[in-house]
């Protein structure tokens, strides 16, 4: 059976909820703070884990306060990592304002590193999907990651993220020529394609990858291009926080494509998943929602 290989970090997210971020030299009280598992790759793998789809999670875990937290939480979820490193894990401070918008301050540790030996023993077939995030590609070991991807079978799904344009250009170009499906938001599309119009950016990126380009548009839904244009509206939801919205969207897209949905149907399913995530605190949803997703995937709708 085909599977989804998820390569990337598991992070300790420290959520800090405030009415509004203060300006420089300002001062404010927070409403509350929480520690949770996060990281783009983890968020994708966790969705697949909860829906019971076959996946392989390649995610290093280090030492220290945050590494111990990640290891313990993964174990409780039944997602134990086999990559145990001696360096320290970092963390991400996620500031959530009253309207749900988020601001990240990250300290990267060994969780963002990569070693090609971690893929040894994993059989990756042409029918498999391989998820990778721009944050790992940007790191010093990103060159080794791209080189490893170049020698793998399977369909790469690349999420450049908000720092995708900071990836060394030669490295980025090499990855794009591997023909990944691209999943990004409007701002990321404009920055990566170096254009002023989203549609122009999509066409420019597609001409390089020769594959599907998916651009999420928040409350306006999603557009995509695979030689034909798709434009699907978002599902109505009350935004609580937007953390993990993009991760949940690509997770839903991957799940739907994996079970054989056509692109338009998969995009609609991804929109549905993302609408539930932004309407809740954090990325982890109520278990009954995962059961609903499983049913929809099995029924093909």
- How many individual β-strands? 14
CATH architecture identity: 3-Layer(aba) Sandwich
Distance between the termini: 21 Å
Largest sheet: 8 strands, mixed
The CATH topology name reads UDP-N-acetylmuramoyl-L-alanine:D-glutamate ligase
Order of helices and strands: EEEHEEHEEEEHHEHEHHEEEHHH
| Proportion of residues in extended strands | 15-25%
Helical fraction equals: 25-40%
Would you kindly provide a written description of the structure presented here, covering whatever features stand out?
The protein has 301 residues and is of the alpha/beta class. It has a single domain, classed as UDP-N-acetylmuramoyl-L-alanine:D-glutamate ligase (3-Layer(aba) Sandwich), CATH 3.40.1190.20. It is built from 10 helices and 14 strands. The strands form 3 sheets. Strands 4-1-9-10-11-12-13-14 form an 8-stranded mixed β-sheet, sandwiched between helices. Strands 3-2-7-8 form a 4-stranded mixed β-sheet. A two-stranded parallel ribbon has the order 5-6. Helix 1 packs across helix 8 and helix 8 packs antiparallel against helix 9. It is globular and about 50 Å long.
Compact description:
The chain has 10 helices and 14 strands. The protein is an alpha/beta fold and 301 residues long.
Element layout with pairings:
Blueprint: E1 4-7, E2 11-17, E3 32-38, H1 40-51, E4 55-58, E5 60-63, H2 64-77, E6 83-88, E7 91-96, E8 102-107, E9 129-133, H3 134-138, H4 142-150, E10 155-159, H5 169-176, E11 181-185, H6 186-193, H7 198-209, E12 213-216, E13 222-225, E14 229-232, H8 245-258, H9 263-278, H10 287-299
Parallel strand pairs: 1-4, 1-9, 2-7, 5-6, 9-10, 10-11, 11-12
Antiparallel strand pairs: 2-3, 7-8, 12-13, 13-14
Helix pairs in contact: 1-8, 6-7, 8-9
């Amino acid at each position: 059976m085909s599977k989804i290989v998820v390569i990337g970090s598991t992070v300790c997210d420290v959520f800090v909820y405030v009415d509004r971020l203060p300006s420089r030299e300002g001062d404010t009280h927070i409403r509350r703070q929480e520690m949770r598992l996060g990281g783009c790759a983890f968020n994708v793998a966790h969705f697949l884990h909860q829906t019971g789809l076959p996946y392989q999670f390649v995610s290093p875990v280090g030492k220290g306060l945050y590494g111990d937290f990640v290891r313990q939480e993964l174990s409780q979820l039944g997602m134990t990592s086999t990559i145990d490193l001696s360096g320290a894990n970092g963390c991400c401070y996620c500031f959530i304002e009253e309207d749900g918008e988020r601001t990240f301050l990250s300290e990267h540790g060994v969780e963002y590193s990569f070693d090609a030996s971690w893929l040894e023993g994993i059989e990756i077939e042409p029918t498999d999907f391989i998820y990778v995030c721009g944050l790992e590609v940007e790191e010093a070991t990103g060159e080794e990651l791209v080189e490893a991807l170049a020698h793998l079978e399977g369909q790469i799904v690349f999420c450049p993220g908000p720092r995708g344009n900071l990836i060394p250009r030669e490295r980025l170009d090499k990855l794009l020529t591997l023909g990944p499906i691209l999943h990004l938001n409007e701002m990321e599309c404009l920055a990566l394609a170096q254009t002023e119009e989203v549609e122009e950016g999509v066409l420019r990126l597609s001409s390089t990858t020769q594959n599907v380009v998916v651009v999420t548009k928040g409350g306006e839904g999603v557009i995509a291009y695979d030689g034909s244009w798709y434009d699907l509206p978002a599902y109505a939801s009350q935004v609580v926080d937007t953390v993990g919205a993009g991760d949940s969207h690509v997770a839903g897209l991957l799940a739907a494509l994996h079970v054989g949905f056509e692109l338009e149907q998969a995009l609609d399913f991804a929109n549905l998943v993302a609408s539930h995530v932004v309407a809740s605190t954090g990325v982890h949803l109520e278990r009954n929602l995962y059961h609903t997703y499983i049913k929809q995937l099995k029924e093909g709708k």
